[in-house]
Design a protein that fits this description.
alpha+beta
Length: 519
Amino acid sequence: MRAARRPRLPRPGRDPRAEVLLPAPGRERVTGEAPGTAVIGGGIAGLAAATALAERGVRVTLYEREAGLGGRLTGWPVHLADGSGATMSRGFHAFFRQYYNLRALLRRADPGLRALTPVPDYPLRHRGGLTDSFARVPRTPPWSALGFVALSPTFGWRDLASMNPRAALPLLDVSVPEVYERFDGVSARDLLRDIRFPEAAHHLAFEVFSRSFFVDPAELSAAELLLMFHIYFLGSSEGLLFDVPREPFPQALWEPLGGHLERLGVRLRTGTPVRCVRALDDGELAVDGDGTSERYQAVVLALDPAGLRAVVGASPGLGDPAWREDIAALRTAPPFLVSRLWLDRPVRGDRAGFLGTSGYGDLDNISVLDRWEGEAARWAGRTGGSVVELHAYAADGDAEQKEVQERLVAQLHEVYPETRDARIVDAVHEWRSDCPMFPVGGYDRRPSVRTPHPRLMVAGDMVRTGLPVALMERAATSGFLAANALLAGWGVRGEVLWTVPRGGRSRAMRALAALGTVP
């Protein structure tokens, strides 16, 4: 990929400094017999790869072990105790405006992104009583940081004097891979300690970012935290507010996108796990399932860490020993819990639809789903109740699950006391442990899109892309990059990608950041 400073392309958001990455030149579509490609994994990364390939004439088969598309954003039907049906998922996700490539993927089936609706605020509350809000914070750096300091009850001007400015300067100029070269060997907790952020701001602003990776700050690479700060705060003028789907994930996002793929001729093989991938002597690849085997000219592995380890581990001839060892070393983050409660009375009208929390033990956020999700709103309107979702990131894997679930509900009562009197009509508690972990010193062993096999690519939110992207946007970007790498080999032009700026937004910010590198 190569960057262009002044592209004549419509920008994907409001940030005039967003950067475009143009694919290698080539034909619009494949010519002659279309190559067959297997995309293994139907999450965001796999859907992005399948979309870019199929739109350019590649014959794509998408394998997904679950019954539906979406990966970690999938959904499934549940039957409630009151006889009604609902769609359960693995929890609320924020679709930030700087997720340019993810939003481009969703536009394939929803050009106006009408399936998304904005959340008006992103308040963060500490148990000590302080609450931060991003609704009034300016979106354009550096005014975003200055506005946060001016408006925040947790970060006053006096706190600036106690901070270590040299330790904080790297926040002003984050680039990839330099940020990993400098800070991957440091934990997020130690970085924040060195900067000497006020304790309350540390807990609210930064711990919320850190725990969105489903891991304690002491275990998270500081480079990943710095990258997050760049993407959402000082590197982008899109701001910290975000959108959420108006309906559950399957209905709002994946069923329409799956229909788009089927119209392109993609074979969607949901409910079909893949056991292994074999490199054949003629350069092709065989994808083996339970009693099945099919040959392809290329394969994209778009799996979560455990799935990738399992498939590669069962495919002894795939890749070289060093690559296989790195895949085997991938770690999974601690378990997390999503508890969804259907209550017989409403949450108070002035409560936030989404609230990040800190200091409440297991509880990391509260979402009042009936404020934006149509299915939940219809249930609440019919019953007079409300639908509330609770998240516990990086939960204690050794604790009794029932005890954690009960504590989470008790912590909801502490934050929103009116829920104490509510009867729980039904509850679903979903435990998962399949998110990637970004440990201190682990960056060099994470896979890149390309592998030792020229027709085997890897995509997912744990993949090194060389770009300032994270979470869902890293998944979408890596999927498009995997497709682009294959398309370039077939002489076809791939997907145009966008990112937030790949460094400090101004010469002044970059010059200040450079002072932090001087001994």
